[in-house]
Amino acid sequence: MTTLNWMLTPMDQTEPEKILALTVLSQLLLSTSASPLRKALTDSGLGEDIVGGGLETDLRQMSFSVGMKGLTEENVAKVQELIEETLTQLSKEGVPQTLMESCLNTLEFRLRENNTGRFPRGLSLMIASLSTWLHESDPLVPLRFEEPLMKLKEKLAAGESVFEDLIRENFLTNPHKAAVTMIPDPKYAEKEAAIEQERIDKVAKAASREELEEIVEMTQRLKEKQAKPDDPAELAKIPYLSKEDLDKNMKTVPFEEDQISGATVYHHPLPTSGVVYMDLGLDISGVSMELLPLMSLYTESLTQLGTKKEDFVSLQQRIGRETGGLRPSTYMSQLVAADGNGPVVSMLMIRAKTMSSKTTQTFDLLKDILLEPNFDNKERFRQLVVEEKAGVESGIAPSGHTVAAGRLRSQYRVGDWATEQMEGLAYLDYVKALLERVDNDWEGVLRDLRALHSAVVHRSKLVCNVTTDSDVYPGVKAELKSFLDSLPEKSSLELPSWIDQAPTPTPANEGFIIPAQVNYVGKAMNLLDAGYELTGASALAAKHLGTSYLWDTVRVQGGAYGGFCRLDMRTGDFLYLSYRDPNVNKTLTNYDGAGAFLKSHDISEEELTKSIIGMIGDMDSYALPDAKGFASMTRKITGETDELRQERREQVLGATAKDFKEFGEALDATKESGSVVVVGSETSLNAAKEEGLDISLSQPL
After folding, report:
1. How far apart are CA 632 and CA 626, in angstroms?
2. What is the pLDDT of residue 207?
3. Which residues share a beta bridge with 262?
C-alpha cells in the first residue's frame, strides 16, 4: 500500500469558504467512480483499490491523503507519479463544469438535509463544532454553511479557477508532503510476539522472588476486582427513569397503501422539507441459484457501468446533479411466522432521494438505469470485480464478528444462506472465480448479467415506498405511475427460483484463519427450532445478558474488546459474539455458562427496571423521516404488525425475574446443539483444536 499525504493549513487559521471549497475539491477528486483522480488510479490497474480518504478535517491540522493498496513494489512509484500527473493535468486543463455542478449539488443537498441517520442531530452539530471550538475558535463556524456556499457559487459563476488554484496551492507547490509505503510482512506477528516474550523473560530473570510474588498478588487482586459486583450504594447514586416514565404505547408511522399499475405503493406523509425519499423493491425470487451470487455486482453495475445513452462517468455526474443520492442494493428477510421459518422476502432495493422539484429527472434516471443498462464494458466491470474482491477481503480482519455472524445465521435459515452467498465468505469465493471468468469467459459473464436483468426488472410483486410531505405526494404519485407503466409487466425470462433450489441450512463448526493476532468467536443456536417460545421478555433477557454476564466474563475478565449477544425475534436465531478476543475455548466456555447465570441470577428490581428502560429506548430509537418510512415499509412487507409490536412492548414492560430464568433454561438446554464459527489467528485456532474443539479450518485470504 502507498499513499501521498499533504499537510494543509490549520482549521482555525483557514477561512470557512476555503474549508468548504477544499471539501468540494476532495469530493470532486475522489468521491465517486467518475471522480478524475479516483478514475485515473482505478483505470491504471496498478493496484486493487483506492485508500487515503481525501480531506481530513476532524483534527486541527487539516490533511489530504490518497493512494492505492494491493499493488506490487515496482508499482509504488508509478502510483505516486500518476497522482501527481493527474493533479497537474487538472490544474492546467481545468475541472469539467458538469463535474463541478454534480459535486456542488451533492454537497449542498447533504448540508441542507443534515441526515445523521440514527445519530441525534443535536449531538452531530455539537461534535461538528468541536473541530474549531477545541482550539479556541468560533464553534459556530463549521455550522454556518450558507454564506461560504454562496461565495463559492459566486466565484464559480464568475469563471474563477477556484479548484485549479487550490490544487496548485495545496498539492503541487506544497512542500509539506510525505509519501508513505507499507509492505506486508507475513512474519510480523511472530516477530512481535518474540520481542514481547524476550522482554518478559528479561524482566522475569531480573526480578527478585519478592517482586515476582508481588506481581502474582497484583494480578490476583485485579481478577478479584474485575469479578466483584459494583457497590449497590454507588449504583443507587446514578439517576434513572422509572417504568412509569415510559410510554406504554408503541410509536407508529402514518401511511397510506395503494395499488398503482399492479405495484403496491406505500406513502408515509411525514415532514421532509420538500425532500422526496423513494424506495423501489423489485422481486428477485425468480433468480436462479446459479445467478444469485452475481446479484451484488449486478446491483452495483446498474449505476457503475453506464447506460445506452451515456457512459458511467456521465451517469455518475447526472446522479450527483439531479438527486441527493441513488443506491441499489439487495434486501433479504422473511415473513413473520410462529416457527420462525416464514417465506423468504427477497428484493433488489433501489433507494433514492431528491428535491420535489426534481422528481421528473429522478424517475427519468431510474428509467434509463433499469430499461437501458449497458453491460458491455468488460474492462469497467472487471474493475468493479477487483474492487469488490479487495473490499470484501479488507473487511474480514477488522469486522470478523460480522463475518462470523453472517456465517452462523446462514446455517439456520434459507434467507440468511442467500445473504451469505451474496455478501459473505461464500461470496468471496464466488468473486475470485468470477474474476477468472471475466478474463477467460466474458461472453458467459455477459449472458449471466443480461439474464439477471431480464429476471429482475418487471413490476410483478413490485413494492414502492414514498416518504415525503403530504402536499408533495400527489405530484410524485403521477410521476410514479408513468414510471411504473414503463416497466415490463412480468419477467421476460423464466428461471427456476433460487428459493426452491437452495440447500437445507445445516449447522457446522467452522474456523477461518486470517492474518491477525486476535479472534472473533461466535456461537449460535435457534431457539424456535428447539421449541422455545419467544416474547418481548426474551429480547429483554438477551439484552441484559450482553450488558452484564458477557460484558464481565468476555470483555472485562477475558480481555476481549467486546462480548455481546443477538436475538433475532423473527427467525429465532440466538448468537454469541466476541470482538478482538485473545481467547477461543475460554470464550466458548463463558458462552455455555450464560444459561446458568440467568437461572441463578436473582435480578433486583432496580436492575430489571434499568434493563426495561434500555430496551424501550432501543424500541423508540431516534429516527429521521426517511428511516421511519423505510422501517414502516419493511414491517408491512414482512408481516410485522403494529399489534405484534405493541404486544412485545407490553411483554417487555411487564417482564419479571421469572422470564429471565426461563430464558436461561432455554440457553442451557440448547448449548450442546449450537454451532461455532471463529474468525481468527492460525495459532489460536490450532491451539483450540488441539484442546478438543471440533472445528474444520480454512483460509479465506
Report:
1. 10
2. 87
3. none
Strand order in the sheet with 61-69: 49-56, 61-69, 2-10, 177-181
Question: For residues 241 and 613, what is the distance between their CA atoms, to the nearest angstrom?
Answer: 7
Measure the CA–CA gap between 625 and 468, rounded to whole angstroms: 8
d(CA 689, CA 519): 14
**DSSP per position, 117-140:** TTS-HHHHHHHHHHHHHTTTS-TT
E-assigned strand segments in 335-391: 344-355
Closest CA to 177 of 7, 2, 3: 7
What whole-number percentage of the chain has pLDDT above 70? 100
What are the grid coordinates assigned to 128, written together? 461538528
Alpha helix (H) residue ranges in 441-572: 442-456, 473-486, 498-501, 536-547, 549-550
Residue-level pLDDT at 266? 97
Q: At what angle do helices 605-619 and 536-547 cross, to 10 degrees?
A: 110
C-alpha cell at 332: 433479504
Inter-residue contact 262 to 282 (CB < 8 Å): no
Residue 382: pLDDT band (50, 70, 90) is very high
**Secondary structure E strands in 623-683:** 675-680
Distance, C-alpha 326 to centroid of its chain: 16
Cell of 557: 475478565
pLDDT at 235 exceeding the cut of 80: no
Strand partners, 346: 332
User: pLDDT per residue over 638-686, tens digit each?
Assistant: 999 999 999 999 999 999 999 999 999 999 988 988 999 999 999 999 9
In which element (H, E) is residue 585 found? helix 585-592
Q: Report in angstroms the alpha-carbon separations of 162 from 170, 344, 581, 676.
A: 12, 52, 49, 57
Question: Which amino acid is present at 693?
Answer: L
User: Residue 237: which pLDDT band, with cuts at 50, 70 and 90?
Assistant: confident
Task: For 66, list phi and psi in degrees, rounded to 5.
Answer: -155, 145
Q: List Cα–Cα distances, 572 to 439, 522, 547, 632, in angstroms.
A: 43, 16, 20, 21
How much is the pTM?
0.89
CB burial readout 539-549, b (16+ within 10 A) else e? bbbbbbbbebb
Provide the phi-psi class of 306: left if phi over 0, else alpha when psi is between -120 and 50, else beta. left
3, 180 in Cβ contact below 8 A? yes
DSSP conformation class of 268: E
- b/e string for 687-697 if b means 16 or more Cβ within 10 A? ebbeeebebee
140: left (phi over 0), alpha (psi -120 to 50) or beta: alpha
Place of cell 410483478: 460
* Residue 508 pLDDT greater than 80, yes or no: yes
Look at residues 112, 272, 123, 120 and name the one whose alpha carbon lies nearest to residue 629: 272
Q: Which helix (H) or strand (E) holds 686?
A: helix 682-690
- DSSP state letter for 693: -
Q: Is the pLDDT of residue 227 over 90?
A: no
Q: Are 648 and 569 in contact (CB under 8 A)?
A: yes
Please give the distance of CA 382 from its chain centroid, rounded to a whole number. Answer: 24
- For helices 36-44 and 16-30, angle between their N-to-C axes, nearest 10 degrees: 30
> Does the pLDDT of residue 161 top 90, yes or no?
yes
User: Which residue's C-alpha cell is 454556518?
Assistant: 144
* Range list of H helices, 144-285: 146-157, 162-167, 188-206, 209-227, 232-235
Render pLDDT for 61-98 as a digit per residue (tens, 0 to 9).
Answer: 999 999 999 899 999 999 999 999 999 999 999 999 88
Grid look-up 459473505 returns 424
